[in-house]
Amino acid sequence: MTQACSERDSLPHAAFLQRLAGAPAATSLDARLGNGAFLALRLVDLLRPGGEAAHPDAFRYQHAATERMCRELPTAGTETGHLNGLVRSTAEAFRSRNPRQVVPALLAYAHYLEDELRLEEALDVLETLVAVGADQLGCSDAIAAQLRIGRVNRKLNRFDEADMAYALAGLLGEAAGDVHSVFLSRVGRALSVQARGNLAMAEQSFREIAAEARGSQEREIEAHSEHALGTTLLLRGQVAEAIIHVWRAFEFYEDEASRLRTLNDLGVMLLALGRVDDAERALTEVVRDGGARDNVSNALIELMHCASYRRDRMGFERRRVECESRSEEMPPNILADFCLKAGIGSARFGNFRKARAQLGEALKVATKSGLHELVFRIERIMAGLRDCATECETKPHTGAEPAISTEALQEVSASLARLDSVTNGRR
Questions:
Q1: How far is CA 143 from the centre of its chain?
Q2: pTM (2 decimals)?
Q3: Which domain holds residue 368?
């Protein structure tokens, strides 16, 4: 069995074969989509430079078979649309002998897969793009591909690979005089430093990038830097200051997806200060608006955490079940966070045996994935679990801790309330 898995992993586009193999039945929608994606990417492979070019008749035969397979998929599905577009673009690229024609379809499909948390598949598509484009890839496309490869690898906690891709994107950006992309490369590398647990270096990097972006009038980069600086300060325990930076990023961002991510992080930070009403307001906005699956998963985990903070057992269990239903698609950092906060919730409700098991699972996932900062945090919580159990047996709980308040935090709270009323007004 192990040998069979290893052989499958070495096959081209193995990530899609794994989706096919993991489907409940060969006729299920997930299996059919996985098969369609595999066939579409094998068609794209015929555009790769080097070696003997595919004979037109062979290409026509493979194209017809792939097109027929994709036509049998549900027409309303988003992924079906991406696959049909990819097959059409591949045929046009083959006819014109210009592989660059397939690049937009590959980038769009990779973006969709990343949003759906199919990160291994997204990486496969991006690597296919680089291989097919090779020397003919335009500078902007090459930079975009490397930045995306860096981000997906970072989400998979493959920090060395992420750093290499970000560095290459930066070099390409410098060669092209693309200041914006060079900034994005620096932000990405600093995020990898943060994820590895070197928070002091990450903070310094984000402060420098934010200041330089401000001077260059790169508003989007300043937003990214302020946002990342806020999350770094949170990890360093400077929560009140972190909130100010993240709210500043929310005001700078222009795209909805980034604004929702800042609201997610704001929810985490506000809860850390005991401002649970504000936290739930921000997180509910994220779940209500939807968007990227990882963002919604994070928001649901934090709403579960809010419920346990309030000692609302029914609310906690409801959110826990929602999160658990999404756990198979969670990348390691989100899965570890879910197990950690589920364990904290179980401990808050006095179920210490379950809490230990959940925290143990969180530690296992975090250790395996090299999430050092999270490992340290879980170990500290596990070490204090016995004392917590003793205290709960001898001392009744008096409810949630009081909220911390400052003038700046009150301004953020008022802004969130206005945002909530605007959203409810639209509905």
A1: 20
A2: 0.77
A3: 331-391
